[in-house]
């Protein structure tokens, strides 16, 4: 870190100034963006509920303890209760389903979202998209959110036909497909490095 010079240098000399501190997104995510049931897309006891869990790692492989994961998804029928759904907004048949979740990471970089598996939905060209969750990642050092997807490991045929997943380099598709877990599935997210998760420009 460069120290600042004397603010009143001698006459005839040129002052030397220190570096301006870099701007970053501080660890402020936990202050105003969390609410108690944020990780609960569906209420406790919902039939068919699963947990989406994982860890977030930085480029050096260290867990990120102050990140935030948001999820947005269709319901099990592949519908959204939102005006942007071209088929029209429709409330879900799953009681309490809200389609949106938000989980902070803990000291080990772990996050968790309780939800139900979404259904397939029509893609922009009429090609069905495989069941998936849209994920947004917020963390220190990021001036903009990172956007990725989670695909389910038991949807091999649908994943193989998915137009978005099919547009990804085959060597990197595995970064978007979750692993089975006893109570749902797991997707670790790597912000940088050799195992970097695929992120989308949206």
TrEMBL record:
Keyword Secreted: no
Compositionally biased intervals (Low complexity): 7-22
Record keywords, A-Z: Dioxygenase, Oxidoreductase
Sequence ranges of Basic and acidic residues compositional bias: 76-90
Residue segments, region Disordered: 1-23, 74-101
EC number: 1.13.11.3
Residues annotated as domain Intradiol ring-cleavage dioxygenases: 49-178
Family, as annotated: Belongs to the intradiol ring-cleavage dioxygenase family.
Protein's name according to its UniProt entry: Protocatechuate 3,4-dioxygenase subunit alpha
Record organism: Plantactinospora alkalitolerans
């Amino acid at each position: 870190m460069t120290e600042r010079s004397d603010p009143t240098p001698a006459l005839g000399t040129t002052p030397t100034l220190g570096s301006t501190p870099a701007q970053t997104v501080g660890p402020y995510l936990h202050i105003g963006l969390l609410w108690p049931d944020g990780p609960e897309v569906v209420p406790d006891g919902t039939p068919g509920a699963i947990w989406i869990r994982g860890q977030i790692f930085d480029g050096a492989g260290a867990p990120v303890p102050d990140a935030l994961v948001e999820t947005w998804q269709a319901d099990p029928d592949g519908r959204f209760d939102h005006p942007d759904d071209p088929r029209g907004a429709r409330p879900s048949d799953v009681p309490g389903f809200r389609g949106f979740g938000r989980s902070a990471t803990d000291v080990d970089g772990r996050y968790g979202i309780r939800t139900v598996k979404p259904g397939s939905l029509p893609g922009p060209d009429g090609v069905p998209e495989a069941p998936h969750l849209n994920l947004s990642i917020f963390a220190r050092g990021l001036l903009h959110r990172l956007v990725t997807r989670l695909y389910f490991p038991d949807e091999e045929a649908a994943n193989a036909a998915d137009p978005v997943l099919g547009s990804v380099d085959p060597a990197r598709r595995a970064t978007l497909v979750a692993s089975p877990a006893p109570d749902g599935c797991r997707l670790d997210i790597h912000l940088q490095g050799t195992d970097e998760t695929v992120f989308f420009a949206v």
